[in-house]
């Protein structure tokens, strides 16, 4: 269903200023068209019939903030999304990561964790899992709690299994999870080397050095200036010869850090040099 | 009530943005229309089609082969330029920004579709106002009708493919039943209609 048309642009600016000032979450550099849809959608979901009602709730009810963040950020993700991307990770990137004694991977904007578990499966199959650490971060603590459980809807498993096979996986995908009534719970051996933590790409800085950073379909929600800021954080966080993986319609091409990177084949994977 | 869209930088004032939405049976129409679009024109065309979510899709290349004007598959934050044809990528919603670029979005499907025609029409209405033109082609889904209504509400122009010429007439017929459509166009007349926008 299409969201209603309730909020005006200047009202959105006002609300975002409030949220930044009161709570320290700054959405002012998010892509405005998409954010406007999310904010109009929250009016529908939480039954605000005017800007004033929405603003009153956001400003006066601190307990509403987490829900607000959860609703205005997009948390649509899947396992092995874009199998050809994972195929290149599997065939070209994993063998090179294997040369390091300790592999650090950052999944930035991991949402409910589907990509983190996909990477964990690649690491297992490359026999690198035991010497890897995966940092899965998101702005939103609620999705991180979900990610940590490793529980995903059962009705997605057929699609994920097909993606897995197309990414070059040779195992029976169902060996990685046990099923319940309508869910699949992934093997806890896949999450034991995952560290879940909140991190806000808008305001937080680099926190470690990594050989691989994945940030897929996150930057599309940011304007160009914010994208540039995030690219700089990634650049500071990447080991020399480390890899950066983006979503299929995202690019490093217009960024100032691009000259330090070389694209790996046709996929949205860049290697620092 | 008419609402006015706000003007944007990056394109000259008055550039008409034609957003074409289509589903089943609309690729043939595009192949019939695009070769006749004149180069160096003042309009911009953005195509939003329901299609399979394959990132390796060759539709952009296919359409390019038929076209005298460049056909570009949209990547995030690509600027809109006049005289060019843009194609929404599979599995992303397409949105317009006030600074004249396009954003992509992987949020929930709308009308079981991503890209959703409604989402693109809706966004075009808000950003381009009376410079937005929505054209709905053949299809079996009702995606696009609500978006067309939005374009009309913001002062834009709404058109549909003549249902008599559509492989699947449900989509344009829905629009005709529910809305006051300004132009009902056969495929052979669509390119002429778009080219004529140069004169206005």
Summarize the structure.
The complex is a heterodimer of chains A (273) and B (200). By secondary structure, chain A is an alpha/beta fold. Chain A contains 9 helices and 10 strands.
Structural class of the helices, strands and pairings of chain B? Answer: alpha/beta
**How much is the average pLDDT of chain A?**
96
Order of helices and strands of chain B: EHEHEEEEEHEHEHEH
Q: What can be said about the biggest beta sheet of chain A?
A: 7 strands, mixed
Q: What number of structural domains do the residues of chain A give?
A: 2
- In helices, the fraction of residues of chain A equals 25-40%
What is the CATH topology classification name of chain B? Rossmann fold
Helix percentage range of chain B: 25-40%
Q: Helix segment count of chain B?
A: 6
What is the strand content of chain B? 15-25%
**Oligomerization status of the protein chains:** heterodimer
Query: So what's the CATH class of the largest domain in chain A?
Result: Alpha Beta
Q: What is the global morphology of chain B?
A: globular
| End-to-end C-alpha gap of chain A | 46 Å
Question: Could you say what the CATH topology of the largest domain in chain A is called?
Answer: Rossmann fold
Overall strand count of chain B? 10
């Amino acid at each position: 269903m299409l969201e209603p048309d309730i909020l005006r642009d200047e009202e959105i600016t006002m609300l975002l200023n409030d949220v930044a000032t009161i709570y320290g979450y700054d959405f002012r550099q998010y892509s405005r068209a998409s954010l406007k849809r999310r904010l109009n959608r929250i009016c529908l979901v939480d039954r605000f019939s005017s800007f004033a009602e929405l603003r009153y709730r956001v400003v006066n009810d601190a307990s509403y903030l987490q829900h607000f963040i959860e609703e205005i950020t997009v948390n649509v993700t899947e396992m092995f999304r874009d199998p050809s991307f994972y195929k290149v990770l599997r065939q070209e990137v994993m063998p090179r990561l294997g040369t390091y004694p300790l592999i650090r991977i950052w999944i930035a904007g991991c949402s409910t964790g589907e990509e983190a578990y996909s990477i964990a499966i690649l690491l297992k199959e490359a026999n690198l899992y035991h010497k890897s650490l995966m940092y899965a971060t998101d702005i939103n603590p609620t999705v991180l709690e979900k990610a940590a459980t490793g529980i995903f809807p059962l009705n997605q498993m057929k699609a994920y299994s097909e993606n897995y096979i197309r990414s070059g996986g040779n195992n029976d995908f169902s060996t990685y999870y046990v099923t319940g009534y309508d869910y699949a719970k992934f093997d806890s051996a896949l999450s034991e080397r995952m560290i879940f933590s909140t991190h806000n790409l808008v305001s937080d800085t680099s926190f470690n050095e990594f050989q691989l950073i994945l940030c897929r379909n996150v930057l599309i929600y940011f304007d160009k200036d914010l994208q540039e800021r995030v690219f700089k954080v990634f650049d500071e966080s990447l080991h020399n010869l480390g890899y950066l993986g983006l979503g299929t319609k995202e690019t490093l091409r217009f960024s100032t850090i691009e000259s330090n990177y070389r694209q790996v084949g046709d996929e949205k994977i860049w290697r620092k040099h | 009530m008419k609402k006015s869209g706000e003007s944007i930088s990056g394109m000259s004032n008055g550039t008409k943005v034609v957003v074409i939405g289509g589903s089943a049976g609309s690729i043939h129409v595009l192949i019939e229309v695009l070769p006749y679009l004149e180069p160096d024109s003042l309009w911009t065309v953005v195509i939003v089609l329901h299609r399979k979510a394959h990132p390796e899709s060759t539709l952009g290349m296919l359409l390019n082969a038929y076209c005298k004007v460049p056909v570009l598959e949209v990547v995030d934050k690509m600027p809109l330029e006049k005289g060019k044809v843009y194609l929404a990528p599979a599995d992303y919603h397409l949105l317009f920004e006030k600074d004249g670029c396009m954003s992509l979005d992987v949020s929930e499907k709308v009308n079981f579709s991503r890209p959703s025609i409604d989402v693109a029409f809706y966004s075009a209405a808000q950003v381009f106002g009376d410079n937005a033109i929505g054209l709905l082609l053949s299809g079996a889904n009702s995606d696009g009708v609500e978006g067309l209504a939005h374009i009309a509400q913001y002062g834009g122009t709404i058109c549909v493919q003549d249902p008599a010429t559509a492989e699947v007439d449900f989509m344009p017929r829905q629009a005709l039943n529910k809305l006051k459509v300004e132009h009902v166009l056969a495929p052979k007349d669509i390119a002429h209609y778009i080219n004529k926008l140069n004169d206005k």
